[in-house]
Amino acid sequence: xxxxxxxxxxxxxxxxxxxxxxxxxxxxxxxxxxxxxxxxxxxxxxxxxxxxxxxxxxxxxxxxxxxxxxxxxxxxxxxxxxxxxxxxxxxxxxxxxxxxxxxxxxxxxxxxxxxxxxxxxxxxxxxxxxxxxxxxxxxxxxxxxxxxxxxxxxxxxxxxxxxxxxxxxxxxxxxxxxxxxxxxxxxxxxxxxxxx
Amino acid sequence: xxxxxxxxxxxxxxxxxxxxxxxxxxxxxxxxxxxxxxxxxxxxxxxxxxxxxxxxxxxxxxxxxxxxxxxxxxxxxxxxxxxxxxxxxxxxxxxxxxxxxxxxxxxxxxxxxxxxxxxxxxxxxxxxxxxxxxxxxxxxxxxxxxxxxxxxxxxxxxxxxxxxxxxxxxxxxxxxxxxxxxxxxxxxxxxxxxxxxxxxxxxxxxxxxxxxxxxxxxxxxxxxxxxxxxxxxxxxxxxxxxxxxxxxxxxxxxxxxxxxxxxxxxxxxxxxxxxxxxxxxxxxxxxxxxxxxxxxxxxxxxxxxxxxxxxxxxxxxxxxxxxxxxxxxxxxxxxxxxxxxxxxxxxxxxxxxxxxxxxxxxxxxxxxxxxxxxxxxxxxxxxxxxxxxxxxxxxxxxxxxxxxxxxxxxxxxxxxxxxxxxxxxxxxxxxxxxxxxxxxxxxxxxxxxxxxxxxxxxxxxxxxxxxxxxxxxxxxxxxxxxxxxxxxxxxxxxxxxxxxxxxxxxxxxxxxxxxxxxxxxxxxxxxxxxxxxxxxxxxxxxx
Lengths: 196, 543
Hints:
The complex is a heterodimer of chains A (about 200) and B (about 550). With about 200 residues, chain A is of the alpha+beta class. Chain A has helices at about 10-30, 35-90, 105-115, 145-155; strands spanning about 120, 125-130, 135-145, 165-170, 180-190. In chain A, strands 1, 2, 3, 4 and 5 form a 5-stranded antiparallel beta sheet that branches. Chain B is α+β, with helices and mostly antiparallel strands and about 550 residues long. In chain B, helix 3 (about 80-90) packs across helix 5 (about 170-185) and helix 6 (about 195-205) packs across helix 11. Strand 4 of chain A pairs antiparallel with strand 14 of chain B, so a sheet runs across the interface.
């Protein structure tokens, strides 16, 4: 069955003719003459854009964002929970940011008191910051028996939040049998931001 | 339909207001007689004449106009005088409109129809006046004109042609008519020539039954007007003035055959269906037979006055009535000499194209918008495919996908850092010291313990340096004990698996029995205690 051929050139020539007419007339008469026609066309386009096109576009745009967010949430859900739980575990063993000022020194004093130890020297807390963590160090020096040191170490290492013994030097005191001079540095770390 | 679209485009794009569609007066201006008519649409498209007033011009006015019978300007030179005549007549009747269509007699305006080569419509505005000079021997600078152009039958050689209907009047007449109506408090909504008005009336009272061209011959006493109408346009118009009456003896002057021959040869017109006769009833009968015999074309009499339900009328009166029907009776003739800032066909077409382009763009945009609206619910279903736990949703609510990824990266980064601080692999110093002390033999003791235990496990691990002494029977035995202790440490499941252990031993060299000569027992004991010293370095292995 032979189909009826459509000569596109006829239509193209017609469109070209109309375009020529429009351009020639506008050039000859000036665009101002057709201001109302242009304004009306613009109005129609604007009405179609703002009245019909834009509202669903905005709605769809918001929906697309929601879908993307839901997809991202769905894909990241397992990883998020895993990381969040692990972070929660880590946060549990670290002091809060609000306790930054006094916690370490107070905890040190409390631990010494708990073991009836009296320091000969207690240095103020030193602080440094790296990778979003605040590192605090407290140093102490005292003369004690080994059992007391051991007991104190057990207390520090079992403490929550964490009190980390970073340096320890136990020197046997020559002139006092059974006594030792102990120098210790205790550290802790405080996250500046917690992802709860 | 096309005319309505053109009108709409004119209104929208060029601010041309639609002609008044309500009651409208028709004013026929002639140096001999004035007519004012008011009509309204009747039942079934008929025309109902409410008023028709005939205003004779006083003899002095006629004398002034009689000098130039064609395209005179003298008659309207004194609008105040004419206005006085009109006002006097109008004051006796109540008129329902102030809108007036003025129609001009042959003294004041001309109508011509001529062929010209086809051309693009945008060139017509300049080409038509040039071509019209062949048919109107008056300088166009002094004339106001209006025309309309339509395709007409091809010439003898088969070449296509454009038929142009043009009306002209003196520019002065235009200004005078405007002044006349202003002084009367009337609004000019159209200005045309009488043949156009009368044709409109004839088409209104007795519409053509078919598309075939026809001839209308109108007799007003001795004044004969012959009009050939084709496609609704007066393509031929001839006026013959023969005194008081037109008898059959004047048939050659009327020359109906010549008129038809001209139309056939010059305008390519064929198939004239009939000749209609109108005008003074008493004279029509003989002319009917005469024309039928002369031309062989069917002839019929049209009693225009009867069709209008008026007592009688003449050319001027019918022209006034036809002018007053301009707003309500359809007509192919659109000529209006009073139209200022006329919109050309090319301009109208351009405006139409611009509006159509705007509409097309608007439709396209709206179409896309509507399509998107219809697909919204489909897309919304996708949202339900993602199951998210409420706690996760609450934590990540309001975040964009990129923000969610960023947050997860930050959390993982912090977790990595915290693992270095709170990692489970960390060894307790207390347990290491406890194990070391538990494994030490009786005759061995520590004098110094140094522990380095960095908080961040990514740096070096736990390191212990244990300094101590050994007591034995001989120096060799003491050193052997120290070395054995190292082996004990390495074999221990807790320590050996986790630490590299190195030992250095330093012996003072003297045998106890030799060294003891000459020393008191306390000094000897102290010396023997320090005879063998060792340092054990324990370094945590990296996993």
